[in-house]
Write a structure and sequence with these properties.
Length: 181
């Protein structure tokens, strides 16, 4: 746990050092991220939109192209990304920005871009895991309910049981509630 804290601290220090030193850093995109289990396209899209909402991004879904275009607006700057997805993977790519010092030739941008995209990616990973867990729990509940489900007796089963009961009564092997009264 301490190693993780030290790593995060070093990363934040590095970003702040670079941002104060030169003002821009290499732009990162999140290349194809595989999703561990196969999910439906709607499940992946739902996880992405949930992550975007939690990180306060605005978005527009394009289900036919399986792309979600998202933007975030802060005082003095804005950022637009495209998230391409399938049931097996997703990727986050830069689309456009305003006042973030993006330079296409050197592929550099203000460090805040990398911070926001990294935070969004962590939230996406979390939401995809959460969707899997919920789906698994629902699947287990359905299996359990099927295992507990006892179908009603069919008429042939009922008649066979009645015959067996009559035979047993004749043999006086059991006492029925009627005989007790």
């Amino acid at each position: 746990m301490q190693l993780k804290s030290i790593t995060v601290l070093l990363l934040v220090s590095l970003i702040s050092l670079v941002s104060t030193g030169c003002g821009t850093v290499k732009k990162i995109n999140i290349p194809k991220q595989n999703i561990q289990r196969v999910m439906g396209d709607k499940d992946v899209a739902r996880a992405i939109t949930t992550a975007l909402k939690k990180q306060k991004w605005h978005y527009k879904e394009e289900p036919k192209s399986k792309t979600i275009v998202a933007s975030i607006h802060k005082s003095g700057w804005d950022l637009k990304i495209a998230i391409d997805y399938s049931k097996n993977s997703y990727s986050v790519n830069y689309n456009s920005s305003h006042n973030l010092k993006y330079d296409a030739e050197s592929n550099t941008i203000h460090p805040i871009y990398n911070v926001f995209v990294s935070q969004l990616n962590r939230q996406l990973q979390y939401e995809l895991q959460r969707v899997k867990v919920v789906k698994e729990e629902k699947g287990e509940e359905q299996r359990e309910s099927k295992a507990q489900f006892v179908p009603h007796n069919t008429s042939s089963q009922v008649s066979a049981e009645k015959k067996a009961m009559k035979i047993a009564q004749k043999r006086e092997e059991i006492i029925t509630p009627v005989e007790i009264w």
